[in-house]
Design a protein that fits this description.
heterodimer; A: 10 strands; B: alpha/beta; Rossmann fold; eight-stranded mixed sheet; five-stranded antiparallel sheet; 32% helix; globular
């Protein structure tokens, strides 16, 4: 039985509006939220823009400080400012993979950076690890001396995946990572992610608005709307019997039933 | 009568070294009042084809076709100026990023008034000015924007993406086009907003009998809204047929792979199982394979595939493949 990997307790985020200095207003971007993720499992977060799903991702990865609540990894609390501890275990892949890779570095230098900062491996060991990671994501060792512009969109997404898994993390956050790929490359990427999940016991947090991918890929899902949690549960149950009106609307808008044959 | 009938349209990019064939002998026919989907992944030349129809490609691109008929009239025989008159009267186009296509420095109202056709106005100039204003407001009403006072006064950045796209559609409707070319109209939008735009296009299609060419990179997004679909890959024609045919019995291996790789269309397969995919990636324009460009990725490819296949016809479903999957459905 797999154990609880990441535990989120009462996490919330609100921004202060600086315009009113006497009557300080605060805007709640994310109402308190709690959930657990097991190893080998995928949690999907669904919602429109402004629903707080990207805020949640930023909080998890440590780019923003939470207003309340805390995050536990393997029972150990992740401190808000301690990036060394966090970025080894929680990694993130972004939507536009092309712009997140530094164009002036080769792939080897790109992948070497997190290793230099977070591990004390010597140069030969790092080289070996980069070689192995590239093979894991379906690229060749020759690609190490290439620059990012020499790759196609799907391959760039694989490089950002390689950068995410090179530190052997336990949780990977996919922030719309599949949205901008072409369909035939997207299914390749889904297969690759599923394989890696089985091999490495990764937990994924998938932020997406394509319910087809969510259904195929995730075990549990959370529906967010305006920072509030509307539904939490098993993906199949929610998609088959949505309880909330908003979820129904979301499912209707993607014509889920239509292609159900 | 066919609204538009294109046979063997090729688009060549003139470069310093040698010309590159970006679109290779593509066929496209549309009936009046039809919604046709044009589906292809990035680099398949679908946007180029649309731009070639509208005639907005510059001198670098050389467009060539065996036949280009518009409502029975042969456009190939006309001079570019005459062609432009016909096309600009009857064809309108909307683009992918509505906010980027609108002028950020002027209000929506002014931009709409600019788009209104002068021939529809009568009387003296002060009467015309009034009519022009009124026409802009009517256009906004047509696309379902009720609060026209606010909308007319606002700048593009003050509106949401979906509203901007509605304004773009309003501008396209100004000259009462017969064919509307929608080049990925909902690419950067939320799914609920996507629904709005598609519903608007569908109602325009039904109420005004306007034909729509809906361009998309994703097969699963457009199927609900189209009568028929043309699939392209890397600048080549792949398959054309009704939406039902394309979805239930694709004859081309590429179409088959597209349908199979879509998680939405395969609700019956267990979750977390492997999806069917094609190996490899889309070829870049500089290194195109010879013959059938799917060749290196195709599971059924044989030696014959180094020659471009001829188009075969099965019950009005056209396929461009040497080895169509016709034995699978009998």
């Amino acid at each position: 039985m797999s154990k609880v990997l990441l535990q989120v307790i009462n996490l919330s985020k609100s921004y202060k509006d600086k315009n009113y200095w006497l009557n300080r207003k605060s805007v709640a971007a994310l109402a308190p939220i709690s959930f657990d993720i097991m190893a080998h499992k995928t949690l999907a977060i669904v919602g429109e823009t402004g629903s707080g799903k990207s805020t949640l991702a930023k909080l998890l990865v440590g780019a923003e400080l939470p207003t309340t609540g805390h995050i536990r990894l393997n029972g150990q609390t992740l401190e808000p400012g301690n990036f060394k501890q966090r970025c080894q275990h929680v990694r993130m892949i972004f939507q536009d993979s092309g712009t997140t890779l530094n164009p002036s570095l080769t792939i080897e230098q790109l992948l070497d950076e997190p290793l230099q900062l977070n591990t004390d491996l010597d140069e030969a060991a790092r080289h070996q690890l980069i070689r192995g990671t590239l093979q894991k994501v379906g690229l060749l060792a020759d690609h190490m001396s290439f620059y990012p512009h020499m790759f196609s969109g799907g391959q760039k997404q694989r490089i950002s995946l390689a950068r995410a898994i090179i530190l052997k993390p336990q949780v990977i956050i996919l922030d719309e990572a599949l949205a901008s790929l072409d369909p035939s490359l997207r299914s390749q990427m889904i297969n690759l992610l599923l394989d890696l999940q089985q091999q490495m016991g990764l937990a994924f947090i998938l932020i997406s608005h394509n319910l087809g991918i969510v259904r195929h890929f995730s075990d549990e899902m959370i529906v967010l709307c305006k920072g509030e949690v509307l539904e939490v549960g098993k993906t199949n149950e929610i998609l088959q019997q949505p309880k909330h009106k908003y979820t129904k609307k979301l499912i209707m808008s993607q014509h889920f039933q239509l292609l159900h044959r | 009568m066919n609204l538009i009938d294109i046979r063997n349209l090729s688009i060549e990019l003139q470069t310093a070294t040698k010309p590159i064939l970006a679109v290779d002998r593509v066929n496209l026919t549309m009936k009046e009042g039809e919604v046709r989907g044009l589906v292809g992944e990035s680099g398949s030349g679908k946007s180029l084809l649309a731009q070639a129809i509208v005639g907005v490609l510059d001198d670098k691109w050389k467009v060539d076709a065996d036949r280009f008929h518009w409502r029975g009239q042969d456009l190939m025989r006309l001079s570019p100026e005459e062609r432009k008159v016909i096309i600009s009267k009857d064809v309108a186009m909307i683009f992918q990023e509505p906010m980027a296509c609108l002028d950020p420095t002027t209000t929506i109202g002014e931009q709409l008034e600019e788009a209104v056709d002068t021939e529809q106005l009568t009387g003296f100039f002060w009467q015309k000015r009034q009519q022009r204003k009124q026409a802009a407001i009517t256009l906004l009403h047509k696309v379902g924007i009720k609060k026209h006072e606010v909308c007319v006064k606002s700048f593009p950045h003050q509106l949401t993406d979906a509203l901007c796209q509605r304004v773009m559609i309003a501008m396209a409707l100004a000259r009462r086009p017969i064919l509307l070319i929608a080049d990925e109209p909902t690419a950067a939008m939320e799914s609920t907003n996507q629904g709005q735009i598609f519903r608007l296009l569908a109602s325009l299609n039904q109420l005004k009998n306007m034909s729509i060419l809906l361009i998309s990179h994703d097969l699963e997004n457009v199927t609900h809204w189209t009568n028929s679909i043309t699939v392209m890959y890397s600048g080549q024609f792949v398959e054309a047929g009704t939406t039902e045919q394309i979805f239930s019995q694709p004859y081309h291996p590429y179409t088959r792979a597209l349908v199979d790789s879509s998680p939405k269309a395969n609700m019956q397969i267990p979750s977390k199982s492997r999806l069917m995919t094609l190996p490899g990636s889309i070829p870049v324009l500089q290194h195109l394979p010879i013959g059938c460009r799917l060749g290196p990725r195709c599971p059924r490819a044989q030696q014959k595939c180094v020659r471009a296949p001829k188009i075969k016809n099965f019950h009005s479903q056209q396929v461009s493949c040497h080895f169509p999957l016709k034995d699978n459905y009998s």
